[in-house]
Amino acid sequence: MTFSTSVAICITTYRRPSMLRRLLQAIQTLTFVKMSEPEITLVVVDNDPSGSARAVIAEFLSKRYRLRYRVESRPGVSHTRNTAIEAARTADFVAFLDDDEEPSPAWLDELLNVESAYGAPIVAGPIVPRFQSAPPRWMLDGGFFQRKRYATGTRIVSTSVGNVLINSRLLHALSPSWFDPRYSLSGGEDTHFFRRCAQLGCPITWADDAIAYETIPDSRLTAGYLVARARNGGNHWTRVDLDLGRTLPHLSSRFAVGLVRVLQGTGIAAVGSVLSPQRQLRGQLLLAEGVGNLEAFFGHSYAAYGAEPQ
What is the CA radius of gyration of the chain? Predict the structure, then answer.
């Protein structure tokens, strides 16, 4: 069979064999209606030095797609993503999924269709939550796990790398500086990468029908998890601003935003403690984001991937 294009689907994993198995099974069901089926290679990078994903990989070696397996012993997401790109260098496109996700059957077809229609070097789609157990009604109604979505064709400057298609020509142009290792344990490596791409005139084009589903474990259905995520998000966004040399007026504005969010969050959380848990949590999230933002100006970051805070 002759293919018109090739795609490497890159997956990074760490000690989640059952989730990795579900993801690899879901990829076997991909369908292509709008675009011709590409030549697909699966690239799995295991961040466990003991190679604990190897047994799952063995189950899929004779399945629909070719599979490459690498072990990356250096801890953190930047190292694993960079190793995946190295292993995928010969493909025309590199797509990323995380090991706690499952793509819809039309996922890759939609990404490739938007890439073709818009001539987009980067295409991203929505990540939709799937809960292991039903969260409290007030938490679900508050949309605390919903990510932003846009109309197909919308251009944005940053997104999660968990559902994205990148033209390899762009990756070759950036080589070897892809995902910055300084963000490997804290997160924010995707924000840093995509905002650098935007500075080069390569923003992200949105494909709203290219859906990937993210498993939300029960351990994340807590205010503590959401507060930590908001704090870390505010922190790494500001760290990226500082690193990319934004102007003094812009940085002054970011500092002011941090102060305002601390004040707003404190007030809303205090009122919310009387009115409703949903309102209280909204205040706590604003406060946490503001604190993370301000701490970045003083050189503080958070280790989100298993290490102690820096």
Answer: 20
Alpha-carbon gap, residue 187 to 204, rounded angstroms: 19
Crossing angle for the helix pair 189-199 and 77-87, to the nearest 10 degrees: 60
Helix (H, G, I), strand (E, B) or coil at 212: strand
Q: How many Å from the N-terminal Cα to the C-terminal Cα in the chain?
A: 51
How high is the mean pLDDT of the chain?
Answer: 93
* pTM score over 0.85: yes
- DSSP annotation of 150: -
Six token digits for residue 173: 């142009």
Mean of pLDDT values over 132-161: 94
The confidence score (pLDDT) of residue 275 equals: 84
Least confident of 72-81, 175-184, 210-219, 241-250: 241-250
Distances (CA, A) of 56 to 7, 15, 23, 67, 212: 22, 11, 11, 12, 21
- What residue spans in the chain does CATH classification 3.90.550.10 cover? 6-220
Distances (CA, A) of 87 to 42, 80, 243: 10, 11, 28
pLDDT at 103 over 60: yes
- Domain 6-220: homologous superfamily in CATH: Spore Coat Polysaccharide Biosynthesis Protein SpsA; Chain A (3.90.550.10)
DSSP tag of 299: T
pLDDT at 272 over 90: no
pLDDT tens-digit map of 48-70:
999 999 999 999 998 999 999 99
Instruction: Find out whether 209 and 123 touch, Cβ atoms under 8 Å.
Output: no
| Residue with the larger pLDDT of the pair 89 and 126 | 126
DSSP 146: P
Provide the edge-to-edge strand list for the sheet that holds 204-206. Answer: 66-71, 39-46, 6-13, 93-98, 163-167, 122-124, 204-206, 155-156
Residue 149 to residue 141: CA distance in whole angstroms? 17
Of 147, 153, 52, 170, which is closest to residue 101 (Cα–Cα)? Answer: 147
